[in-house]
Amino acid sequence: MTRRAKAKKAKIGACSQGSEPPVLYDDIIFTILSGLPAMCLHGIMRYVCNTWRQLIRSPNFIESHLQRSRPGLFVQQTHFPYRARFIEFKENGDLEITNYNTNFQWCVSCSSDGMLVFRRTSKDVGKSKDVLYVANPIMKDAVVVPLCLAPHKLSYHYGIASLPNNEGYKLVCGDFQDQSQGLTYWYVLSLGIDDSWRKIASVFLRSPGSNRQSIAIGQFIYWVESCFVSSTLCEVVVVDTANESVSKFSFPEGLWVHGFMKVGNYLGCVKLLGIGFYVYVSKDVHLEKWEFYHKIVPPSPRKEAYWPVLKFIACVDQELIFLFIKKGDGEIQYFAYNMRTQRITSFEGHINFWKDLVRVHTNSLVSPGGAYKL
User: Fold this and answer.
1) Cβ-proximal residues to 126 (8 Å cutoff; 6+ apart), any chain
2) At CA 307, angle to CA 301 and CA 312, rounded to 5?
3) 231-290, pLDDT tens digit by residue?
4) CA distance 233 to 206
5) 3-state secondary structure of 211
6) Which residues of 333-351 are buried (b: 16+ CB within 10 A; e: fewer)?
7) pTM (2 d.p.)
8) What is the spatial distance between Cα 271 and Cα 212, in angstroms, rounded to a whole number?
């Protein structure tokens, strides 16, 4: 047997026998494995050998894999059995769709850094108690969390954010009041540490209605309007989950905002200026400065049916996800606009506006640490 063959056999033996492989070999394997999809790692690769299994379970690997993973769209049916699928954009512009082999019993509420929050309500078939589930459909792990028992209970909105230095996750509940009250109350819960909601602040909003969504960026959760709105009424609530503080900021007057989303690691928005749409981002957590990011180029006259846009709802890498009203029959459909190539992709046959919920999500190996199995 040649020296090269013996060396190759020794490396394979090191993995199969569970002994420590050379440092260089370990670094290479770490880099290769951390670039694979979470479904592949949890479904196949962890069974190759004990060395790989331990590596895939390690906190450093899980964090590195999450940082390298590409986000996509978590799409779930709004009715029982709540089946879900993951839509990912490939480099060539094609869509890759993967079905989750998980029996969901609830509707998705929000997502952040590989974790999903589901809400079960009393209107679900055969259910009588409202409850939250924080889950990872890849790992099939879930934690049951009680709903926030705020005294007002007019309009709840939930968000989740990861804490710095891998210190876990926190859930936030915004209890929105009616127009006459104007007050919103904010509560926080530390996942895996306690199951009690703590009130941290109350904020007055000029427009405290229920049309709001949460966007998590690091330790911050931004509560923004989920429909297009005049900047005169546009207020953004920022919750710092690490310091458990709440702030409110307003937009300059005279603009129409057609959607908020996470763009890279910043909060972004699409503004209507004249007859064109422009993407802006704020690199300041206090939202004092907004920088121009991209001008959306309208489609050619042959594709004018893609316009007018109803609203922009998300950003996945360079793909802006938007809704538009189809001319003629008024049907609402999902499309994606690529800011780099100006290509427009249709989700026809993949997402139904009336039957599906859509959230930006990243498949990960993060576990909520619960004993409940999906």
Assistant:
1) none
2) 140
3) 556 788 999 999 999 998 877 655 678 889 999 999 999 988 877 789 999 988 787 788
4) 7
5) coil
6) bbbbbebeeeebbebeeeb
7) 0.86
8) 17
